[in-house]
Write a structure and sequence with these properties.
182 residues; two-stranded antiparallel ribbon; 3% strand
Amino acid sequence: MTNLRKELEKCKHPNSRKTKALGKKARRQNNKHKTRLGHAIKSNITGEKLSWFLGQLDEDRTAPLSPQEFEDLIALYFTRFDEELEQINLKQSIGKHRANQHAARKDVITMTLEKERNEYRTGGLELLNLCDPLKLKMLRDWDGSALSVQHLKLDLVSHNMLQRLKETPKESTTTGDQMEIA
């Protein structure tokens, strides 16, 4: 960027072709930088989410989660900010001048939770499917860095997907019973 600034200073006329080309080059570099920052932020958010789920799993557990356990874990994930929201509400109720003290943080938390709940109900949260033994092993082997999140194969985990996973074992046991009778 400093090299670009030096070249711009050398240009004599502000509307010359060279000045316009250098301006275009500077905008392009700026846009590339913004794109890289966007990817880094997404990786950090996904990394924090995965590390929360990893922290909630038992250390010695090697068996994959059942769909019901995974659903309970996701419900627990949605309540992770409850304590902080209670503290904010308590601080806001104490004095009339403190009513808006932590309003921005409270708004961010409520918007985040609403967005995540909506994603879970509709399309799905971007997570590792912990009902799959291979994905659980991948999460256990993950080093916890945001850079290596891109190497994990994430699934869209939704309420409907977990309901289908709950029904699948029941159907296989009923077909097995029917085969024994025949």
